[in-house]
Design a protein that fits this description.
It is a single chain. This protein is an alpha/beta fold. The chain is built from five helices and eleven strands. The strands form two sheets. It has a nine-stranded mixed sheet with strand order 1-4-3-2-11-6-7-8-10, covered by helices on one side. Strands 5-9 form a two-stranded parallel ribbon. It is globular and about 50 Å long. The two termini are 24 Å apart.
Length: 188
């Protein structure tokens, strides 16, 4: 069974690589077909320009209008560590830095404690990957993100502290499409 510790331990071997993206490209054709990005039919009442995450399906949808959406495969947090409800994308960043929250360190000090000072963007162990969309509720940061991942083999699984993670290539595509102010609905 694959867990966070084995993923991080395996990834530590990549620290010598100049970039996780070049060291482990994980092409889309290696993903199960249901997690590959594709255009799909959705409820025609949905307006264009909304993000919808369906946790039970491990999919994120970017609505296009007229009953169509782009569907992306995602990884989620372990059970009990996910955000659900409505939020707004209030900030975007390419190659964002990362720092574990105090709660992450408290829950798993051996896993997150060594990274308490954070990691710069582009670092091969930085779990934020190539880009991030920051979720806010009522003007306040939720500390949940939609972001890329250096561990694309985890798409379709719940294994981390709660963010919505896409393959870096898929995240780059989504990042270009989603403006600040976009509504996001995360459903169980």
């Amino acid at each position: 069974m694959i867990d966070r510790r084995s993923v991080l331990a395996g990834a530590s071997a990549l620290l010598c690589a100049p970039s996780i993206v070049t060291a482990n490209p994980a092409p889309a054709n290696r993903l199960p077909r249901r997690f590959r990005m594709r255009e799909v039919d959705v409820n025609p009442a949905l307006p264009a320009g909304v993000l919808i995450v369906k946790q039970s399906e491990f999919h994120l949808y970017w609505t296009l209008g007229d009953g169509r959406a782009l569907r992306y495969g995602i990884a989620l947090g372990a059970e009990g560590r996910n955000f659900f409800g409505d939020a707004v994308i209030a900030r975007k960043a390419e190659w964002p830095s990362w720092r574990p929250t105090q709660n992450m360190i408290r829950l798993e000090p051996n896993l997150y404690g060594p990274y308490r000072d954070g990691l710069p963007g582009g670092h091969p162990m930085n779990p934020m990957g190539s880009a991030a969309l920051y979720m806010y509720v009522n003007g306040r940061d939720t500390f949940y993100r939609v972001h890329g991942t250096p561990f694309p083999q985890m798409i379709g699984q719940g294994w981390s502290s709660g963010c919505v993670k896409l393959r870096n290539d898929d995240m780059d595509d989504l990042y270009r499409r989603v403006p600040v102010g976009t509504r996001i609905s995360i459903q169980v």
